[in-house]
Design brief:
The chain is mainly alpha-helical and about 550 residues long. Helices cover about 55% and strands about 5% of the residues.
């Protein structure tokens, strides 16, 4: 039986009533519930009114019972009484839910009063009427009845919850068994096409490519797993002829298979990244076949050229294996698709400026790179490498110039530093002057008002005329500077009207000569904004020409 600490009687009028946690279990182990309202199970009790106010910090609600309330209370059967220990604060939602639930379960109506206070409680919690419990037979009414279950019922696991055992060896055996029955490549593709409906290509796609490339299941290091009775098949690339006709025929199997099962494309890319790391474990003739197939796959888009980056691995580079493999790929791709396709692939794979990284450390010289590529008919890659090396050198030179300017080094020191670095990088003067112009113009924060740009630009450039003079010692350098100014003014609209003033400044400070200006005006100008800048320079050119004629006349006299 439930044991409760309680009081036998209390005057309810104007008294605060509390809920409790003081409930213990009976010896039968069944639970009891302490109800959060004053519930009359033996009588029907009517509450007359309710008045709730939440406009102040302390919201108020109080019960005004009917006249027979006290007499009814005196007739409560034991143990219906008010609990006074282990007080528990309940919120309004819990109280209302308890009221509705218990009213429905017991069949006793609960009438909400319409006027008068019933309870007093603080804003964040309230004290509620409490004290009654339901015996176990009442609790059972709240519990949901269990549904009948047939004897011998078999509980099925959802298909999505089933976990299939990973069995790449079993998949390999099934594929090899089918490939062994095929007589030619057409039969191989037909088998693979049909088998995709039965075998789980989505799960074992990389295993499938292992078999088609190497003839079996590849394990770390590049060897073939020997588990099982038939771990290897000859229907693979490594056992095919190395001539390009045979390679193209094998290429079509992969193309058709991935066209049929599109999800294999991503798996094939991951497969190639894995296989290329294993090439040290393959035989030399196997590496040649794989390199040729890789070139074909890159050419038809089956794999991106970025997969070649995995060859930049120390254990492949130090023995020259990575370089040999790359050269075979380059030769095949050039023969099959042309040099433009090869250069495009290198750029897409971001390898055009990393070719030297694949050379062994003791052979990373410009001379050796030129020799190895030229001997294999890849002269275009030598030019590409030089161009990329030049771009990298220019970036380094420009950064060095920025560092010197930010450190506020003397102009003479900056000139010496740039000349030394440009000589080491083999950057000619006419290219250095272009870098100098671009770098110096990037230092300023230009005014957005067009009428103020000219004064700001001239003031800025006067600070660096000594640098411009140091790198315009030839006519070609002077013309290159004028073209840089023209290009800059054309691309920055606020400078369109400043071109002539900048050229005049360079003329007065002897950065550029009269002959270079006249040559630019005559035939060395750029088509960018040609008519606008020629018209802007017209009066200045006429003045130069007249000055030249007067000078010639004076010399004759």
């Amino acid at each position: 039986m439930l044991e409760l600490d309680c009081i036998s009687a209390m005057d309810l009028m104007g008294t605060k009533l509390y809920s409790t946690e003081g409930i213990e279990q009976s010896s039968s182990g069944q639970s009891f519930i302490c109800v959060s309202v004053l519930l009359i199970c033996s009588f029907k009790l009517t509450f007359t009114d309710i008045n709730l106010s939440t406009s102040s910090r302390n919201a108020v609600a109080r019960i005004s019972p009917v006249s027979s309330f006290k007499s009814m209370l005196n007739n409560f059967p034991s143990p219906f009484a008010l609990l006074h220990e282990r007080m528990l604060l309940l919120d309004v939602t819990q109280l209302l839910v308890s009221l509705l639930t218990l009213s429905t379960a017991t069949g006793f109506p609960i009438f909400l009063p319409t006027s008068g206070p019933i309870l007093h409680y603080p804003f964040d919690a309230f004290y509620c009427c409490s004290g009654l419990y339901l015996l176990s037979n009442k609790i059972n009414n709240f519990q949901k009845a269990e549904r009948p279950v047939l004897q011998g019922q078999r509980i099925k696991t959802r298909k999505r919850d089933e976990r299939e055992k990973n069995d790449p060896t079993g998949f390999r055996d099934a594929v090899i068994a089918g490939l062994e029955k095929a007589e030619d490549l057409d039969a191989i593709f037909k088998y693979l096409d049909i088998a995709g409906n039965k075998l789980d290509y989505r799960r074992y796609g990389e295993v499938l490519f292992d078999i088609l490339i190497a003839g079996g299941l590849l394990v770390p290091g590049g060897s073939i797993s020997q588990d099982g009775e038939k771990p290897f098949t000859n229907a693979c690339i490594f056992k095919a002829s190395s001539d390009m006709e045979a390679m193209r025929n094998h290429e079509q199997i992969f193309v058709k298979l991935m066209r049929r099962y599109k999800y294999l494309e991503k798996m094939f890319e991951e497969e190639m990244k894995k296989v290329l790391v294993f090439i040290k474990g393959f035989q030399p003739e196997e590496r040649i076949k794989l390199a040729r197939m890789t070139a074909l796959w890159i050419g038809n888009g089956s794999v991106p050229p970025t997969v070649l980056a995995v060859l930049n691995n120390e254990h492949l580079i130090k023995d020259g294996i990575a370089l040999e493999f790359l050269i075979e790929v380059f030769i095949t791709l050039k023969q099959e698709k042309g040099i433009s396709a090869l250069i495009t692939a290198l750029k897409k794979g971001q390898l055009e400026n990393r070719l030297m990284e694949f050379f062994p450390l003791n052979k990373r010289t410009e001379e050796y790179l030129k020799t190895i590529f030229t001997d294999n008919g890849l002269d275009e890659l030598v030019k590409l490498h030089k161009a990329q090396a030049s771009q990298e050198a220019k970036r380094e030179l420009q950064q060095a110039l920025l560092d010197d300017l930010n450190d506020e080094r003397p102009g003479k020191d900056i000139v010496n530093d740039i000349k030394e670095k440009s000589a080491n990088y083999n950057i000619p003067e006419h290219e250095v002057i272009g870098l100098l112009w671009t770098t110096l113009m990037s230092l300023a924060e230009w005014n957005k008002k067009e009428e103020l740009i000219a004064e700001q630009a001239l003031k800025h450039l006067r600070l660096y005329t000594n640098l411009f003079q140091a790198f315009t010692t030839t006519d070609r350098s002077e013309i290159a500077l004028i073209l840089k100014v023209q290009e800059y003014c054309y691309e920055n609209m606020n400078f369109m009207k400043v071109f002539q003033k900048i050229i005049l400044l360079f003329y007065k400070t002897e950065v550029i000569s009269e002959d270079s200006i006249l040559k630019w005006y005559k035939d060395a100008h750029s088509p960018k904004g040609k008519m606008h800048f020629l018209q802007q320079m017209k009066k200045f050119i006429e003045w130069l020409q007249n000055a030249e004629e007067e000078s010639e006349s004076e010399e004759e006299n």
